[in-house]
Amino acid sequence: MEWTFQSAEELTAALRAGEVSSAELTDETIARIERDDKAINAICVRDFDRARVTARAADQARARGDDRPLLGVPVTVKESYDVAGLPTTWGMPPHRDHVPAEDAVQVARLKAEGAVVLGKTNVPLGLQDIQSFNEIYGTTNNPWNSARTSGGSSGGSAAALASGFGALSIGSDLAGSLRTPAHFCGVYAHKPTLGLAPVRGMVAPTAPPLPTEPDLAVVGPMARTARDLQLLLDVMTGPDPLTLGKAYDVRLPPARHERLCDFRVLVLDEHPLLPTGSAVRAGVERVAGALADSGARVERHSALLPDLAEAAVLYTQFLFSGSTAHFPLDSYAELQTRAAALSPDDRSLEAARLRGMVLTHRDWMVIANRREIHRHGWRRLFAEFDAVVCPITPTPAFPHDHAPDPMRRRLDIDGVAHPYFDQLIWAGLATMPGLPATAVPTGRSPEGLPVGVQLIGPMFEDRTPLRLADLLEQTIGGFQPPQLS
Fold first, then answer.
1. Which of 172, 177, 321, 445 is catalytic?
2. CB neighbours (10 Å) of residue 322?
3. What domains appear along the chain, each with residue ranges and CATH number?
4. Pairing of strands 168-173, 74-78
5. Annotated catalytic residue within 7, 132, 153, 445
6. What pTM, to 2 d.p., does this model score?
7. Is 22 annotated in the active site?
8. Annotated catalytic residue 154
9. Amidase domain location, by residue (predicted)?
């Protein structure tokens, strides 16, 4: 039997039953990587020797009666996580030789639960792109079409999962970096509620791995099934033992419902600032149709929904407010001059990006207050609905575009060019208020590319969108392996 496309849940059952050993699973997965990754370039740092040692140790532990949740399961880790003895570069050439001495807290949790870490997956330069390419490791291709991107910044992890290179992966998400690659590659990902999973050790070189609590950014699980997302989220969840973990434990509430027919869902496929491409709109419709056919309550409009245009502008300002912290003073002054010349009536996303780059602390406090108003609006909405279904980006995976100035790149949406970074606004809908969001595959576009949607849930009720994802997987299907050449 071929094991490499089986879920972590299925692999664990087979390991428990003695149908396969971790050593066999690891060798088979390594063989697939060595055969297929030349075309994909997902695994940028290989750790096969240590993986084989770990797998043999897992088999010995199981023989002694050990049964940890991930014992013997092959996994990968996004390059941006510190793994002791392996380089962490974030794709930045000056740091190609940076090798941390200790594991990130999430890598340590994977290992503590018995996972076999095969290696690290590719990322964009500084994690700051919707594609995954850099001078150190090259370009990660989409397993469905090598001329297309796998997404970013967790694009290597998504491509690895779609190619059978491990059952699970861990990534991060600030601007859709979990959800967009999942959507582009046809796999699952979950952006947890802000603060649910600690990020220590997921840090740019050569910054110290401190237990910080970043604004907007989260770490989260990626998998080929919704149930595997829940399995891995349970491992990742819980405060950092150096800080809040001294006083708090986490107990997530159960999913609001166990049957599809009981869910109350708001479906969105239009945004006031950006059109939704036909392929993605069809994916949203497929989910909406499955929900309606099951007897779920499906609505298309709600007066309780926070203003989408303002949400996009606020998110864009937050996102870009940290991008210029280390700019030279003369470059920063030039941005200030350009921002001051903007018309007060210019509410475009381009203007929001520029204003965000030069936010004063006073400005930041003003938009932070607006964010709290939006958060309260979401609390009111989720008193009436259990989840929101909407796009992740307006298109399936786009062709590789390595133009050096991303501000000048354009995204083709059904034949019309739009600013490249405008596509982030759907991902920002959940990111700005810190809500959980699960990316689920919905099928393929007419060009044969995967199409996904996101299920946004109430804050700290991550099990609700995850359960909805599981029920939809049972109804409309889920991951399908690409035909790798």
1. 177
2. 16
3. 8-258 (3.90.1300.10), 308-372 (no CATH)
4. parallel
5. 153
6. 0.98
7. no
8. no
9. 24-464
